[in-house]
Write a structure and sequence with these properties.
The complex is a heterotrimer of chains A (197), B (265) and C (588).
Chain A (H helix, E strand, L loop, with lengths): L27 H30 L11 H21 L5 H27 L8 H33 L3 H31 L1
Helix pairs in contact in A: 1-4, 1-5, 2-3, 2-5, 3-4, 4-5
Chain B lengths: L1 H20 L13 H33 L14 H30 L8 E8 L2 E6 L30 H4 L2 E3 L2 E4 L3 E8 L4 E5 L4 E5 L5 E6 L4 E6 L12 E7 L1 H14 L1
Parallel strand pairs in B: 1-5, 4-10
Antiparallel strand pairs in B: 1-2, 2-3, 5-8, 6-7, 9-10
Chain C lengths: L13 H6 L4 H31 L8 H4 L11 H20 L1 H15 L8 H20 L31 H30 L12 H32 L11 E2 L2 E2 L7 H35 L6 H14 L15 H13 L1 H15 L8 H23 L2 H7 L3 H31 L5 H27 L18 H31 L64
Antiparallel strand pairs in C: 1-2
Helix pairs in contact in C: 2-4, 2-5, 2-6, 2-17, 4-5, 5-7, 5-8, 6-7, 7-8, 8-9, 8-10, 9-12, 9-13, 9-15, 10-12, 12-13, 13-15, 13-16, 15-16, 16-17
Chain lengths: 197, 265, 588
């Protein structure tokens, strides 16, 4: 059974010359990522409102200091966005920069796990306090979505290898959009945690 | 077939409207001070939406009748969509404005006004699957509630600690609500386990119990008699069977009842 | 522009063609099949409920063997009644009303109606279906655990749903399975919405501007947007619920709860938080259930009225207004919940305002019938029936939207009558209209008109018999979600319940006519042409059923809007008549 990935590279589709009544070539992968960003943002908004309500519902919120490694992880993630853009600005896209992005991303996730170990060492687990519960929830969910971003970048890499050209660049562009969103989302979450936890 | 549809729709609409209008099934007589406002709001809504209901169904029926088996040419509704928009905005919009303006005042008068300072305060505990009521007793104070002391077998429904808490010693705990007529009542609703609700149709009053919250509910009963309090918030397998009675007594009989109960503590 | 995003070759092999298929048409049919199984299950549950309410002590034959715990000797226990009710609501709302009109018909017809070969992400589309199926199986498995399914209603209010098995039978494993099932369903829906939105925006054929999209496509698109936001909130709610149940957290459970004589080890949580999160999803959900029906009616009725819908652009604006407003009204489910009473007034305002676009679309439909030349085939009858039942269901909303009246009517059968009319009847009529209309296209055969008409009449009259009396007894204060009516003031209302039960059983029996028609027509129905209804939109330009890539490798070019009916002197697409012009016909 042939799938889109397995078939030999197709010639680029004939794009009719844009006229005044036609739109530019749509990019479903990019539209899809934008839609995904909307949904993911809404989910984190729901968790945020749960945090705000829960914090106000009872005086049992136990404040604690965020593990310092979190800030180092943040730097890694922001740096990975820069490496990804550097990758994309090259023609063809610079593979080493892409690998660096992936490495930073995975190191970020590893760093988050270390942050959890730090918390556990302080006796702060999921059910210990609502504050620790939200810490684990937000970091875990973000980490999971980030791993999804890693999968997306790997898929884009795979397509680039199979079919270099505008199609592969479009996929990489969509994956990059998602990746940058993951960084923006993390910055938001870090601010939320720093202010509230 | 179209004419049949028109006739069936017309019959359904008119029969339903008639059943509503004739009050064949209707609210029980109101025994509360505030209920007359709710009943008026309900009647006004019934009339205005009833008219809309009948008109819409009959219009549908009429147009289907006319459009069935006809040899006439196609006609567009005169004015196109504009009259529909205007009709909706004007008719429905006007109805909404009136209902909201008046209705919000009715609602506020029940749920957003502070209770009468002379209210008789009664605490209500809802649990799976019963209501219990507590009066403050001679000292006029309610003893503190301790969840860890709550025990149905010992009938300590409110978790009182009379041994260590003097205010709890004279609290009167009963399984039905007895209140004086024409006297403002203030209930404080506590939930022991899950969500419940307090509903007395004749009193035109309803309120959820929420665990972790103490929710005030105030009203004045204007007629004596015995009425049912039923739970309307799904609380488990005994939900259908969770009820208590509210007995509205003349003031002197209530005072007598209270004296007797206080002596029994 | 081209829909050159992908071309997938024809599938090979039985499994790839009929089971693990990426073809949106196969996936759409799989969703419809799932919804069919679900609706039969949900209906059987409702019959059991209604039998129990009317004759609580009479054993139901065979039930004792099927459910020895819940119905020993064939008599349903109060807890089993509530479990049946919970499963009935959950199955119907999620696996019927969100699945058939949106995932089922939308998947099948949206790509065709916009001239695309398939959805934007066919493999994700396939995954959506299988995740939905797994969610259904997880939900159903609760019938087979020792303690039975959850009994907290499809609304699963905390802390009843959050504390675990202390709270009662079904609140252990049964409730956990419920939460897992719904969380999975959310994932599937989000993926589905993703596909619908991207496909509509990016894969339209040449000439298919947004303004020329069929109204059913518009409805599916807007529904997908609503669902994207709504299910993105329900999933966090389910996750938090599962954490409270399994991980010892306290998002929804306050301190000091004594359940089954045990002080619960939770503290600090807010039961109202669950209600806010749930209803923020729950209210848009009911518009997800009905909006595709709006689209289907507005798409099908013109074909049988032989004139376009009155005011199609107004219709679209109203759909958008409803979608937007649907996020502002959720508190009307919570007037008496213990939230600040001032919020009740705040929420009642948009709740009443949303009746305006709903009224406008209803008037547009009625205005379309005016001056029409009705061809009263079964799809048309269900469209007209839809209008009637939607009026009935919508009007009762006026009462419940007002907090002062809700003080009396909350928690009564008035509410049950209201939502059954709009969801259980109107949305179902939308599904029926879609089935009778699109069956020839999907299966290449016509359904029996005689059987269809019998089905329509018995159902139309039957549903009024089942659900109109609920408003009457609601006004009398008949509380809902009761397993039996033992209160003094409820006993006189039992005869009405008996009437509704008989009506429900008869209406249920009438659905056998429909099932028989479905099966018989698949096997022996008359062969359908490409365009048996002389309709105009793109699905009628291609074969019945369409080839695997919808248009045989030649995507259509769209020359005009989707409802050119009553166009005099125009050449018909297949030469049958001159009162319509197909969307894809070449311009003259």
């Amino acid at each position: 059974m042939t799938t889109v990935v397995a078939r030999p590279p197709a010639p680029p589709p004939a794009v009719p010359t844009p006229t005044a009544t036609e739109r530019p070539q749509p990019k479903p992968a990019r539209t899809g990522v934008l839609v995904g960003i909307a949904a993911i943002s809404m989910s984190f908004a729901a968790f945020t409102s749960a945090l705000v309500v829960r914090q106000g519902a009872s005086p049992d919120w136990q404040h604690f200091r965020l593990p310092t490694i979190l800030y180092f992880n943040t730097l890694l993630l922001v740096a990975s966005s820069f490496t990804l853009e550097t990758c994309r600005r090259r023609q063809p896209p610079g593979r080493p920069w892409l690998y660096l992005t992936l490495a930073f991303g995975l190191l970020f996730v590893l760093g988050q796990v270390l942050a959890w170990r730090n918390l556990a060492g302080q006796g702060l687990f999921l059910a210990t306090s609502p504050s620790s519960a939200f810490f684990y929830i937000f970091t875990a969910l973000h980490g999971l979505h980030l791993l999804g971003g890693v999968a997306g970048l790997l898929y884009a890499l795979h397509r680039l290898n199979r079919a270099p050209g505008p199609a592969g660049a479009a996929t990489l562009g969509a994956a990059a959009l998602y990746w940058h969103f993951m960084a923006v989302l993390w910055l938001y979450l870090l601010a939320l945690l720093a202010l509230r936890i | 077939m179209g004419k049949l549809f028109a006739v069936v729709v017309a019959i359904i609409a008119l029969v339903s409207a008639a059943i509503f209008a004739l009050h064949i099934w209707w609210l029980p007589p109101d025994i509360s001070a505030h209920g007359v406002r709710i009943d008026r709001q309900l009647s006004e809504t019934m009339v205005s939406s009833g008219i809309l209901f009948v008109l819409a169904q009959l219009a549908l029926a009429l147009f289907v009748w006319q459009a069935s088996g006809t040899t006439r040419g196609i006609k567009t509704f005169p004015g196109g969509a504009t009259p529909m928009v205007v009709l909706a905005l004007v008719l429905v919009g006007a109805e909404i404005l009136v209902l909201t303006f008046v209705g919000s005042k009715v609602w506020a008068s029940i749920y957003q006004t502070p209770p009468d300072p002379n209210s008789l305060q009664i605490e209500v505990q809802a649990e799976q699957f019963a209501f219990y009521f507590r009066y403050a007793g001679a000292d006029g104070k309610f003893g503190a509630m301790h969840p860890e002391l709550m025990n149905d077998a010992n009938e300590n429904f409110f978790g009182l600690d009379p041994a260590n808490d003097s205010t709890a010693r004279d609290d009167i705990v009963v399984g039905s609500l007895t209140i004086p007529v024409n006297h403002p009542i203030l209930l404080q609703l506590h939930a022991k386990d899950v969500n419940h609700a307090f509903y007395v149709p004749e009193l035109r009053i309803q309120q959820d119990f929420v665990p972790g919250m103490v929710i005030p509910l105030h009203f004045t009963a204007t007629k004596t008699g015995k009425y049912e309090i039923v739970c309307t918030q799904l609380c488990g397998l005994g939900h259908y069977n969770m009820r208590a009675y509210v007995e509205v007594l003349p003031q002197d009989q209530f005072d007598q009842w209270l004296k007797v109960k206080a002596a029994q503590q | 522009m081209t829909s050159a995003v992908h071309h997938h070759a024809a599938p090979r092999g039985f499994l790839r063609t009929h089971v693990f298929s990426v073809d949106h048409k196969v996936i759409g049919r799989q969703y419809l099949d799932l919804a069919l199984v679900a609706v039969v299950t949900g209906m059987v549950l409702s019959w059991l409920m209604r039998l129990h309410l009317a004759w609580p002590e009479t054993p139901i034959p065979g039930l004792g063997k099927l459910s020895p715990n819940g119905a020993a000797g064939g008599v349903i226990t109060p807890e089993y009644y509530l479990s049946l009710m919970t499963m009935h609501g959950t199955i119907m709302v999620f696996f019927v009303l969100t699945t058939a009109p949106f995932a089922g018909f939308g998947n099948y017809f949206l790509p065709i109606q916009i001239g695309a070969e398939d959805m934007a992400f066919p493999r994700i589309n396939m995954m959506s279906f299988w995740v939905t199926l797994v969610a259904f199986l997880v939900l159903i498995s609760a019938f087979f655990v020792s303690d039975g399914p959850a009994l907290s209603g499809w609304t699963a209010y905390a802390p009843l749903s959050a504390v675990g098995k202390d709270a009662g039978p079904g609140q252990g494993t049964g409730q956990t399975l419920w939460a897992v099932s719904i969380a999975l369903f959310c994932v599937a829906q989000l993926l589905g919405s993703l596909n619908f939105i991207v496909t509509t925006l990016d894969l339209r054929a040449k000439g298919m501007s947004l303004a020329r999209m069929p109204l059913s496509t518009w409805a599916w698109f807007i529904t997908a947007v609503i669902g994207l936001i709504a299910f993105a909130v329900l999933m966090p709610a389910c996750i938090l619920l599962l954490l409270d149940r399994l991980a010892g957290t306290s998002f929804f459970i306050p301190a000091g709860l004594v359940i089954s004589d045990r002080l619960q080890p939770h503290s600090g949580g807010s039961p109202l938080l669950w209600q806010h999160l749930f209803w923020f999803f729950g209210h848009p959900e009911v518009y997800i259930a009905i909006l595709p029906g709006f689209g289907i009616i507005s798409h099908v009725l013109p074909a049988f009225a032989r004139k376009p819908l009155l005011g199609p652009r107004v219709f679209i604006v109203c759909l958008i207004a409803i979608a937007f407003l649907s996020y502002t009204v959720w508190g009307h489910h919570m007037f008496l919940s213990g939230m600040n009473p001032f919020s009740a007034t705040l929420f009642s305002v948009p709740t009443l305002i949303i009746t305006i676009p709903a009224t406008i679309v209803t008037l547009l439909w009625i205005g379309t019938v005016y001056g029409a030349k009705l061809r009263l085939a079964t799809p048309a009858l269900f469209c007209l029936g839809f209008i009637s039942v939607f009026v009935s269901g919508g009007i009762s909303g006026f009462f419940l939207a007002q907090p002062s009246i809700d003080t009396y009517l909350h928690g009564t059968y008035f509410v049950v009558g209201h939502f059954h009319f709009v969801m259980g009847v109107a949305a179902m009529f939308g599904i029926f209209a879609g089935i009778y209309f699109w069956f020839p296209k999907m299966f290449g055969r016509m359904m029996s008109e005689t059987l269809g008409k019998w089905h329509f009449w018995l159902t139309f009259i039957g549903v009024y018999g089942v659900f109109m009396p609920m408003h009457f007894i609601g006004l009398a204060g008949n509380v809902r979600r009761y397993a039996a009516f033992t209160d003094d003031y409820l006993k006189p209302l039992v005869p009405v319940h008996k009437f509704m039960t008989i009506a429900a059983l008869l209406t249920g029996a009438a659905q056998l006519i429909f099932l028989f028609n479905l099966i018989r027509s698949r096997i022996r129905g008359a062969r359908a042409t490409d365009n048996p209804w002389q309709a105009t939109t793109l699905e009628w330009s291609t074969a019945s059923p369409p080839p695997f890539d919808n248009f045989g490798g030649r995507p259509p070019v769209v020359a005009r809007g989707p409802q050119e009916y009553g166009a005099s002197g125009a050449a018909g697409g297949d030469g049958g008549s001159d009162d319509y012009v197909m969307q894809a016909a070449p311009d003259r």
